[in-house]
Amino acid sequence: METNAPLTVRTFYNLSPEEKGSMKGYAFMHYVKIFSGKQDKYARHANWRLWEKSVIDLRLRDKFTSWGRRNIVLRNGKKLNKAFKIFVILHKNTRYVMQALRDAKAVQLKKDWGEKPKTGFENRLNQWAELAAKKSGNPGIKRKLLDIIKDPE
Fold first, then answer.
1. Stated pTM of the model
2. How far is the C-alpha of 83 from the C-alpha of 97, rounded, in Å?
């Protein structure tokens, strides 16, 4: 009889701040559906966390969108008043999001985005913002996403 070792699963709560940030950065970059209003917007990210990273988080939604709004002040002085939590979390994790884009393989982005990624970092960053804005149902947030992502906290 063949036996398999049990899967060792960690909880997100017990990860280091660096690991948490890295996972959030990956989620923002690869799973742009999290900007949508769809009920299943976290499904692919939750599956990736479990099957690729052996991490479970029973309160995944809360990490991105649970509480109200906050103001964000960018380094250039621009103020985003009453920004939804997802934008606040994006701002707090910009270095991880940028790193996720730097590390991303074109094949994986194509799979995750559903379209071929452009070449060059800036082109991909703009493509990401466009895709996220499209998923949100508000194409006007593309500029806000780029302002936030280019302003690391």
1. 0.87
2. 18
